[in-house]
Design goal:
The chain is mostly helical. It is built from 21 helices and no strands. The protein has a single domain, classed as Hydantoin permease. This is Purine-cytosine permease-like protein.
Length: about 475
């Protein structure tokens, strides 16, 4: 009876939360290209770009680090995530439930959904900095953690409501919105970068070196970024999506594995061109009398995307910041909604997504999620990525180790201890090492992922034998 109800819910919503996506709903690379370009040339770029400068990174370390780190990310999407997505055609949450058990995956889905809500909240913060310009709204500073004014609260609530409604309309609406917005955002990022470079006097590599050069000392509260920080951050800032298999929920619609290459549109348009453009915009602002006065007084210049873009390209910049926040928050809220949907499978997808959007909007009221985005993205990727190793190692190695696939579903297990132990042990060990030695957490994402996969196979061998 329960299975019949779940089937009915899935068919009614059209999102196939608890069944494989049928071939009639498979989509070509064209439907993914705009979505990935729109999602990754989006709100986070306006924040992460300037934050690289606050970390004192040099021009060489940033440019070469991004080239290589983004290439590794694309390879991971193409050869780790996409083949499993097209083979299983299931959401991450339902697939994990079949391996880990209903009770264990409920806790994971809650953590996953909340982390995605916080990320979406940061993007609502980004959009709000654009909407607040005409109202002369005070912008959050780099050190702000809580709402700073009533106007800020009202603007964030309004932006969050619109974003939530779009996300609640499902995958097709999210993809269409991203496809429509992507060309505009890419053009504005490119133009803004060119204008900012021109106003900085950059017309060659030597002049860029004169402006940027060896980097600088990091701002108070920031760590110094090197080439390796940039490379591993670029590779693993989306670790939850590729290594962590969250994008199984999106790529399950792909008609073939080559769709995984479309992620390059997001990486090199967004995580390369847009990040560098945003860096140049912030570099221009740092040369302004306002920023100079803040620095001279011992303060920290604000990293507010709306004013930065408005100063360089005017109203088009404001529109770009606004839309950029939407195109990142929309698919993020959609993913979070799927996580919560797995906890409440009988609930309407629309209602769950609207509630998810409400949580994200509340998070957006707090500027800390956006202003500490480098640290937050590293943490959430580190936490969620290892679980994807369970799926990857089981998919390719379970039978070679004499293990049963989809163990929890096969034996009606509600809580697979092998999954929990394999997830928590590497996290505790590597997080402790990072904290004790003061190491940037992204350096430990891959070791934690590999350790989780190996431990899952070894512990499962013992549990399944018993």
């Amino acid at each position: 009876m329960e299975k019949a109800i779940m089937q009915e819910v899935s068919n009614t919503s059209g999102e196939f939360e608890r069944q494989p996506v049928p071939s009639s709903h498979h989509k070509s690379w064209k439907r993914f290209l705009g979505m990935y370009a729109g999602e990754h040339a989006a709100g986070t770029e306006f924040v992460i770009g300037p934050l690289f400068l606050t970390a004192g990174v040099s021009a060489f370390d940033l440019i070469v680090g991004l080239l290589l780190g983004n290439f590794l990310a694309v390879l991971t999407w193409r050869y780790v995530t996409t083949p499993i997505a097209t083979a299983e055609r299931l959401t991450l949450y339902y697939k994990l439930e079949k391996i880990a058990g209903k009770k264990l995956v409920t806790g994971y889905n809650l953590a996953n959904g909340l982390l995605f809500c916080f990320l979406a909240g940061a993007m609502i913060t980004v959009s709000a900095t654009a909407v607040g310009i005409p109202f002369d709204m005070p912008m959050p500073a780099l050190t702000d953690t809580i709402p700073t004014s009533m106007s800020w609260v009202l603007v964030v609530l309004g932006v969050g409501a619109v974003i939530s409604v779009v996300a609640a309309r499902g995958y097709d609406t999210v993809a269409k919105f991203s496809n429509w917005a992507a060309p505009f955002m890419i053009a504005v990022f490119l133009i803004a970068g060119i204008v900012a470079a021109s106003r900085l006097g950059v017309d060659s590599w030597s002049s860029l070196w004169a402006v940027w050069g060896e980097g600088s000392e990091p701002f108070p509260g920031q760590i110094k970024f090197t080439f390796w920080h940039v490379l591993f951050f670029a590779w693993f800032c989306n670790a939850a999506m590729h290594l962590g298999m969250s994008d199984l929920s999106v790529l399950r619609y792909a008609d073939k594995n080559s769709v995984g290459w479309t992620t390059a549109a997001g990486m090199y348009v967004g995580h390369f061109m847009a990040w560098i453009s945003a860096c140049l915009m912030f570099a221009l602002y740092l040369k302004s009398p306002e920023a100079a006065a803040i620095i001279a007084s011992g303060g920290v210049p604000p990293v507010a995307p709306g004013p930065l873009a408005y100063e360089v390209v005017g109203v088009a910049g404001l529109l770009c910041v606004l839309v950029a926040g939407w195109t990142t928050a929309n698919p993020t809220i959609y993913r979070a909604g799927l996580a919560f949907q797995a906890i409440f499978p009988k609930s309407s997808t629309v209602k769950v997504t609207l509630v998810t959007g409400g949580i994200a909007t509340i998070a957006g009221l707090f500027p800390a999620f956006a202003m500490k985005l480098l640290d937050f993205v590293a943490v959430y990727g580190f936490i969620l990525a290892p679980v994807g190793a369970v799926i990857f190692f089981e998919h390719y190695l379970a039978e070679k180790f004499g293990l049963k696939k989809n163990y929890a579903a096969l034996f009606k297990v509600q809580f697979n201890w092998a999954v929990l132990l394999a997830w928590l042990i590497p996290m505790a060990v590597f997080f402790g090492l990072a904290w004790y030695y003061g190491v940037f957490l992204s350096f430990f994402t891959l070791p934690a992922w590999l350790a989780c996969g190996v431990l899952y196979l070894l512990i499962s061998k013992v549990f399944q034998k018993n």
